[in-house]
Specification:
- This protein is of the alpha/beta class.
- The protein has a single domain, classed as 5'-nuclease (Rossmann fold).
- The chain contains seven helices and five strands.
- A five-stranded parallel beta sheet has the order 3-2-1-4-5.
- Strand 4, helix 7 and strand 5 form a beta-alpha-beta unit.
- The mean pLDDT is 89.
Length: 144
């Protein structure tokens, strides 16, 4: 099985780091967490991470965020939201609407990508609840 990385995992890594050196160590933990498993970044996660670069408090922070993101995508491919993933997304939306348990649209795109690839989704603590609403989706937290 592989891992799809959610934005909440990336946010948790940055929040826990507490400084540039510690942040680099925290990002290395992400690579260790992935290990030799296949991994993917949904296009929406890449977009959300780019928003974080654009909204950084200063240019130094933006440069650090962008460098970490570039290092990540050098090792982990970005997966487009294509027609096949869109079909999975539509099925998930219909299922969740019927059950009255809708989750945010971007999280649905991540879940659809993971479901299509038959991968687990790697989340931070703040993202876990949303993804647990998806039947059959394995959810892994950044803490392990």
């Amino acid at each position: 099985m592989g891992i799809v990385i959610d934005t909440s995992a990336l946010v948790d890594i940055e929040r826990r780091a507490g400084g540039e050196d510690a942040e680099t160590t925290a990002w290395n933990v992400l690579f260790l967490r992935i290990g030799d498993q296949p991994a993917a970044i949904p296009a929406i996660v890449f977009a959300e991470a780019l928003v974080g670069v654009e909204l950084a408090a200063n240019t130094k922070r933006a440069a650090v965020r962008r460098a970490h993101l570039d290092a990540l995508i050098a090792q982990v491919p970005v997966v487009d939201f294509d027609a096949q993933i869109a079909q999975v997304w539509a099925r998930l939306v219909a299922t969740l609407r019927r059950s009255g348990q809708m989750i945010p649209a971007n999280d649905l795109a991540v879940a659809a990508t993971a479901t299509h690839l038959a991968y687990a989704v790697l989340v931070g603590a703040s993202g876990e609840k949303h993804f647990r609403a998806i039947d059959g989706l394995e959810v892994i937290t950044i803490d392990g």
